[in-house]
Amino acid sequence: MWFIELRSDTATEPTQAMRDAMYKAEVGDDVYGDDPTVVELEKYAAKLMGKEAALFVPSGTFGNQLALFTHCRRGTEVILGEDSHIVVHEVGAPAVIAGVQLRTLKTKGGEMDIYEVRDAIRCKEDIHYPETSLICMENAYSDGRVLSLKNMNEVFNEAKKYNLPVHLDGARIFNAAAYLEVDVKDITKYCDSVMFCLSKGLCAPVGSILAGSKYFIQRAKKGRKLMGGGMRQAGFLAAAGIVALKHMSGRLREDYENALFLGKELSKIPGIKVNLEDIHINMVFFDMSETGYDSSKLVEEFYKKGIKINPEENGKMRFVTNYWVSKEDIPYVVKTLKEIIL
């Protein structure tokens, strides 16, 4: 049975072009640096990001944690948003892998206040507190909003005053670039390292990229091996990533437009509250508490109608558009919700 997949863009399946590329991929042992398809992907990804080098890694969480592990000394401190993905959805990995403390700041639409960032930096020698070793930003943010380049510039410049590196969780950086109508390099110039996913909206089945300076990536490659990320004949997966970057990154504006259309239609349903101004990428968050309908039950009823969704999290529902959700699917989704809750 074919389902309309709204749980997440992580559930996207590879395109036929990706499947063909994977079947025909030339491979080698990537741990030795002998996989030509991985090498091609890494060089192309680094160029897109405006960085010297890049590294193919198994997942976005792996890439973020590898960045922390590479940038930071154990016992130091990382400044980042309290509701960022690294804090909320990466299983406390910074404490386990990099051995760092997270100094979390409140955000507004994902943006940290520059004055709070300035106050949080601890670089003076003091026996009582840890030194700041890294500042992290995220764009697009976990709540679907896109950070302004102005805010990123402010945070990056503040970090450089203290010679601190900046890492960007850019899992959906191409979505952010589509919303801002800029090249991704206009975003990544405000970070020293960046992780982005080849899966999610780009539809590759597996993998993410960590990019930065040649020296950083050289060290990160050893860290990847330590963390169990030496994937050997990974060219079969990298082949899909190349197709994703060359043919899928340019169409993400369509997913945003479908999300906005979905949000506008949902907002017409009594008891459904959608903040349309927060729809910056392919995510629609909404509150349905006024309907009194249990979200877990809604998951079951939607499934019967051929639609996959997740229950609410922290009082919010989230529908995510993607390559496999067409504009023509949206009226059916909205109609189904009306029939169930009204």
From TrEMBL:
Q: Which cofactor does it need?
A: pyridoxal 5'-phosphate
InterPro entries documented for this protein? ArAA_b-elim_lyase/Thr_aldolase, Low_specificity_L-TA-like, PyrdxlP-dep_Trfase, PyrdxlP-dep_Trfase_major, PyrdxlP-dep_Trfase_small
What Enzyme Commission number(s) appear in the record?
4.1.2.-
Residues recorded as bearing N6-(pyridoxal phosphate)lysine in the entry:
K200
Q: Which GO terms describe its molecular function?
A: L-allo-threonine aldolase activity
Q: Which UniProt keywords apply?
A: Lyase, Pyridoxal phosphate
Identify the Pfam families for this entry: Beta_elim_lyase (PF01212)
Q: Which residues form the Aromatic amino acid beta-eliminating lyase/threonine aldolase domain?
A: 5-287
Q: Which biological process, per GO, is one annotated for this protein?
A: L-threonine catabolic process
Q: List the record's Gene Ontology CC terms alphabetically.
A: cytosol
Q: Say yes or no: keyword Lyase present.
A: yes
Report the family membership.
Answer: Belongs to the threonine aldolase family.
Protein's recorded name? LtaA
> Which organism encodes this protein?
Clostridium kluyveri (strain ATCC 8527 / DSM 555 / NBRC 12016 / NCIMB 10680 / K1)
Q: What gene is this protein a product of?
A: ltaA
